[in-house]
Amino acid sequence: QMSSEDSLVDEDLTSVPDLQLDETDYELSTEILIMLFLLMISIFFGHLLHKSGHKYLQEAGLTTVIGMLAGFMLKLTNENYVNKKITTHFINLFMLLLLPPIIFESGYNMNKKSFFKNIGTIMMFSFVGTFIAIIITSFLLYGAGQVMPEEWAPEMGLKPSFAFGSLISATDPVSVLALFKSMEADANLNAYVFGESIFNDAIGVVMYETVKKMGTEGDKSLQQEAFMAVINFSVVFGGSLFIGIGTALFVAFITKKMATKTKQQ
């Protein structure tokens, strides 16, 4: 009887499927673990830096240095794994999970009075300033590739140059804003820098997507490509703005109704 029970137990155990992680799940969990570890290190050393009262190195600069060292160590460990695995998956993780809370937190905690008071100047800096920075950066990169030796500046076409210029021109002045806060700078100056940093990320991403679509719809002249780029930029930016405003109004309406019902109860 014992042997029959043992055989039944053995059969039950062998029928249980093995739990195996997919390769993508394993890589993603590893990337999240690395990210959390680096975040703890940044918070710890940032606390020590703030406690010591150091004036020449801000917390954002320290975090940048930690990220550079971590990237260098990962590249020394396995360059192929970093380039093909971690970089690809982390971009998706950053765009879907990390970037939205960063943008929403900035808008939620901003000084709304100073922001809307200077909205015209902020929008001019955001649109015109970022667009000028993209044009200058892209043509400088393209010209450097044409003139300088290849080992110093690899030759790049106009499309890759504009794609890189679109992403690199959207600056995030975290250190400058932290310095303004410690110096108690003028509220209008802080609103200019902060407001421009909110919009330039969106403009840079939309411009990058616009550049990426160029040249994918057959043979077109330069004028047609430029016209389609303007149309794509307007559609993507306007659609995103419309969806964002509509969603915000809908959430505000639902929240207001729920708060009213709670007070009545």
Automatic annotation (TrEMBL):
<dbReference type="InterPro" id="IPR018422">
    <property type="entry name" value="Cation/H_exchanger_CPA1"/>
</dbReference>
<feature type="transmembrane region" description="Helical">
    <location>
        <begin position="32"/>
        <end position="49"/>
    </location>
</feature>
<dbReference type="GO" id="GO:0015386">
    <property type="term" value="F:potassium:proton antiporter activity"/>
</dbReference>
<dbReference type="Pfam" id="PF00999">
    <property type="entry name" value="Na_H_Exchanger"/>
</dbReference>
<keyword id="KW-0812">Transmembrane</keyword>
<dbReference type="GO" id="GO:0015385">
    <property type="term" value="F:sodium:proton antiporter activity"/>
</dbReference>
<feature type="transmembrane region" description="Helical">
    <location>
        <begin position="116"/>
        <end position="142"/>
    </location>
</feature>
<keyword id="KW-0472">Membrane</keyword>
<keyword id="KW-0406">Ion transport</keyword>
<dbReference type="InterPro" id="IPR004709">
    <property type="entry name" value="NaH_exchanger"/>
</dbReference>
<keyword id="KW-0739">Sodium transport</keyword>
<feature type="domain" description="Cation/H+ exchanger transmembrane">
    <location>
        <begin position="48"/>
        <end position="261"/>
    </location>
</feature>
<feature type="transmembrane region" description="Helical">
    <location>
        <begin position="189"/>
        <end position="208"/>
    </location>
</feature>
<feature type="transmembrane region" description="Helical">
    <location>
        <begin position="56"/>
        <end position="74"/>
    </location>
</feature>
<protein>
    <recommendedName>
        <fullName>Cation/H+ exchanger transmembrane domain-containing protein</fullName>
    </recommendedName>
</protein>
<keyword id="KW-1133">Transmembrane helix</keyword>
<dbReference type="GO" id="GO:0005886">
    <property type="term" value="C:plasma membrane"/>
</dbReference>
<feature type="transmembrane region" description="Helical">
    <location>
        <begin position="86"/>
        <end position="104"/>
    </location>
</feature>
<dbReference type="InterPro" id="IPR006153">
    <property type="entry name" value="Cation/H_exchanger_TM"/>
</dbReference>
<keyword id="KW-0915">Sodium</keyword>
<dbReference type="GO" id="GO:0098719">
    <property type="term" value="P:sodium ion import across plasma membrane"/>
</dbReference>
<keyword id="KW-0813">Transport</keyword>
<feature type="transmembrane region" description="Helical">
    <location>
        <begin position="228"/>
        <end position="254"/>
    </location>
</feature>
<dbReference type="GO" id="GO:0051453">
    <property type="term" value="P:regulation of intracellular pH"/>
</dbReference>
<feature type="transmembrane region" description="Helical">
    <location>
        <begin position="162"/>
        <end position="180"/>
    </location>
</feature>
